[in-house]
Amino acid sequence: MSEEPAAGVALPLDAVSAEPPGADGGAEVTGVSAPVPASSPAPLPGSPLAGRIALITGGTQGIGLGVAEAFLAAGARVAVVGRDKAKMDAVVESLAPLGEIIGIQADVTVVAEAARIVSATVDHFGGLDILATVAGVFEGAPLLDATEADYDIQFDLNVKGTYFCAQAAARHLVDQGRRGKIITVGSVAGLRAFPGVSVYGATKAAVGFLTQVLAGELAPHGINVNCVVPGSIDMPTNKLLSPPGAAEASAAGTPARRNGLPVDVAAAAVYLASDSADFVHGTSLVVDGGVAAVG
Asked: What Enzyme Commission number does this protein have (predicted)?
């Protein structure tokens, strides 16, 4: 979708959280640790994730980077997954003052990589408690212009990547008899019909449905599966907010009269990953400034 939005229309997209396709998917793991500074961000007070181990796909930019920062600030030890090693290494270095973090280079559209990133996290930290499947990609196009490539890249990453990463994490947790949290990422575009985002919206609607089914299957094992659903999030990876005036138009069309920030979504993810959400299963927590509620 290259055209600029009309004034007063809220843009639907949360993020483009994946590195460009084709990046190397090697097995290298990098990591450093350091004390948490007093000025670190805290979406929820205290350290609700103290002692927890979290794996975040798409954790090197956009919403995933915000979630990684928030999880570290909440006390978790974190593994971020990305395709671009240079970007991943830079993120690990920049977030190291917040706590213990490693980077795992991988392409989660390759099914075998899902089990590998779980194993790498467990091997380094000694376990896994939380998975956040943030990796995703947006390729907007109206029906008459959409291509097979547009379709495949979005379903491969947004749906297949989410599904098999959740499967790999769930298998580990069940095998270990360990309780855990799986957090998927949808989009308001999966709740409302926005012209020009049919494929993306379908992938995110699929993620929401998968979340409900997986929640039912995994709840008896003590595993919570929930979905955080962003609206228009202001960050460099959101292509729809980059044209002149687009961010202002989106904010004007949002009941809250502003676009969201990665920290807004990250705060919801921290809640869903915490003990406070132990009785929350299969829900979609919408973080969109009221867009989905008012239609």
From this structure: 1.1.1.-
Q: Is 143 exposed, middle or buried (0-12, 13-18, 19+ CB in 10 A)?
A: exposed
Residue 100 near residue 124, CB atoms below 8 Å? no
The domain in which residue 121 lies consists of 29-294
Q: State the pTM of this model.
A: 0.86
Q: What is the CATH number of the domain that holds 47?
A: 3.40.50.720
Q: Is residue 234 part of a domain?
A: yes
Residue 220 lies in a domain: yes
Residue 94 · residue 101 · CB < 8 Å: no
Distance from C-alpha of 241 to C-alpha of 62, rounded to nearest angstrom: 13
Residue 1 lies in a domain: no
| Inter-residue contact 66 to 94 (CB < 8 Å) | no
Can you give the pLDDT of all 295 residues of the chain as single tens digits? Answer: 333 233 333 445 454 444 433 333 333 454 433 333 333 344 566 799 999 999 999 999 999 999 999 999 999 999 999 999 999 999 999 999 999 999 999 999 999 999 999 999 999 999 999 999 999 999 999 999 999 999 999 999 999 999 999 999 999 999 999 999 999 999 999 999 999 999 999 999 999 999 999 999 999 999 999 999 999 898 887 877 878 888 898 888 889 999 889 999 999 999 999 999 999 999 999 999 999 998 6
Q: Where are the beta strands (DSSP E) in 58-169?
A: 77-82, 101-105, 130-133
* d(C-alpha 271, C-alpha 262), whole Å: 14
Annotated catalytic residue within 151, 163, 200, 271: 200
User: Structurally, how many domains does the chain consist of?
Assistant: 1
Active site residue 200: yes
**CB burial readout 158-169, b (16+ within 10 A) else e:** bbbbbbbbbbbb
The residue to which tokens 């930290």 are assigned = 125
Question: Does the residue 13 lie in any domain?
Answer: no
